[in-house]
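Pipeline run #58 for the internal structure catalog. This entry was flagged by the ingest filter as a single-chain record with no existing model, so it goes straight to prediction. Upstream metadata was stripped on purpose; only the residue string is passed forward. Reviewer on rotation: M.T. Logging verbosity set to normal.
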Amino acid sequence: MSLVLDRAAQDLLFREARTANSFTDEPVTDEQVQAIYDLVKYGPTAFNQSPLRITLVRSPEARERLVRHMAEGNRPKTATAPLVAILSADNEFHEELPQLFPHFPQAKDAFFSERPVREGAATLNAALQAAYFIVGVRAAGLAAGPMTGLDFEGVRKEFLDDDHTPLMVVNIGRPGPDAWFPRSPRLAYDQVVTTV
């Protein structure tokens, strides 16, 4: 095989990893979340803009407020997951560029002075970071349940502000009973890759 990562790690991150639909009540610690972030923060984004913001929902009151904005089928798993993360894009990420992209501090104004441009860049790059986050959760030996079945505007108003766009909600924890739906098919290599 041509991959450097050993087979067990490949399975953990990809082949055996699944979207979890139920969880045990084993807590997800702040140390685990810190370790996940400390790994995934190295994933590349354009101009190192790093627009992903993570809102951890831990308290019963916040959980109840979030569940109200989830699609009906997502409510039970969001209500019972040990930890829930709201992943959003910071549309004012450019304010951090002088620190994050110090070799070209003018990038803040040269490329991102207009809000629509920032919103597009923030959404694309935060979605990329959200994928890293899911792989990081798996690397911590936990299961992730990413979902977009939610009232985005309701979540934004309840938990964020006008400068943040919610992308998804991710339930996090150890998989519970019957956590997995059957694996869906994937496209074959020749359906995806074309050589020109």
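catalog note: The radius of gyration is 18 Å.
catalog note: The first strand starts at residue 52 and ends at 57.
status: ready for reviewer M.T.
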